[in-house]
Amino acid sequence: MARRASQLLLLLFTVAMVGCDHATKVGAKSALEGRGPLDLLSGVLDLRYTENHDTAFSALDRLHFPGKDAVITVLGAGALVAIAFAWWRRRSGPALQQAGFALIVAGALGNLTDRLVRGYVVDFIHVAHWPVFNVADAAIVAGVMALVLSRSPGAEALVKEGACALQSRS
Questions:
Q1: How far apart (Å, rounded) are the C-alpha atoms in residues 160 and 144?
Q2: What does DSSP assign to residue 88?
Q3: What pLDDT sits at residue 62?
Q4: Alpha-carbon span 18 to 22, nearest angstrom
Q5: Could you tell me which of 20, 143, 6 has the C-alpha nearest to residue 80?
Q6: What is the reported pLDDT for 69?
Q7: pLDDT at 22
Q8: Is 61 strand, coil or helix?
Q9: Other C-beta atoms within 10 Å of 131: how many?
Q10: What are the beta bridge partners of residue 127?
Q11: Which of 21, 46, 114, 137 is flagged as catalytic?
Q12: What is the pLDDT of residue 1?
């Protein structure tokens, strides 16, 4: 019963992350499109509206061929299916691994939805010396980090210790 409840909680978390990503993109488009960067920490962090018609880090920017957008969308959908399948196969894995998969699926779903609905991905967070990104991108990176950490010896014990520490404070 507890396992099923935690799976439902992870599914709700994933849906909430997709909603958060979508809401921030809508907000960024309405507040930032057509204006210059909005400095939050001068020289370190700003918000700027960009439309990403390419892949992460504009990896295919120099490649031009007919149907490139469709290829990127199909590859993104394929990656999402593969990750979701890997998550399903490891559905009994440790909590940190489950959280990692939830974050990656949420981020991939958020960006894929953008591509399908808009034809591009809205990016708006800019940290100095780094490409502009969005909440979905941050979720994917955090999820990959969680998966890597979940493979480390003693990682689950650290997560349990942290959860116990949080419970004792409340």
A1: 20
A2: H
A3: 78
A4: 6
A5: 143
A6: 87
A7: 97
A8: coil
A9: 14
A10: 45
A11: 137
A12: 62
Instruction: State the Cα angle at 115 between 133 and 53, rounded to 5°.
Output: 60
Task: Answer yes or no: 137 catalytic.
Answer: yes
Cβ burial 69-89 (10 Å sphere, 16+ → b, else e): eeebeeebeeebeebbeebee
Task: Report the chain's terminal Cα–Cα distance, integer Å.
Answer: 25
pLDDT at 156: 64
- The catalytic residue among 21, 46, 114, 123 is 123
Whether 46 is catalytic: no
Q: H-type helices in the chain, by residue range? A: 2-32, 68-89, 95-118, 135-150, 155-169
The low-confidence residues of the chain, meaning pLDDT below 70, are: 1, 57, 155-170
- CA-to-CA distance for 89 and 145, rounded, in angstroms? 19
Q: What is the model's pLDDT at position 4? A: 81
The pLDDT assigned to 102 comes to 97
Q: What are phi and psi of 51, to 5 degrees?
A: -110, 115
| Distance of alpha carbon 55 from alpha carbon 73, whole angstroms | 9
Res 117: pLDDT: 96
What integer pLDDT is reported at residue 81 of this predicted model?
Answer: 97
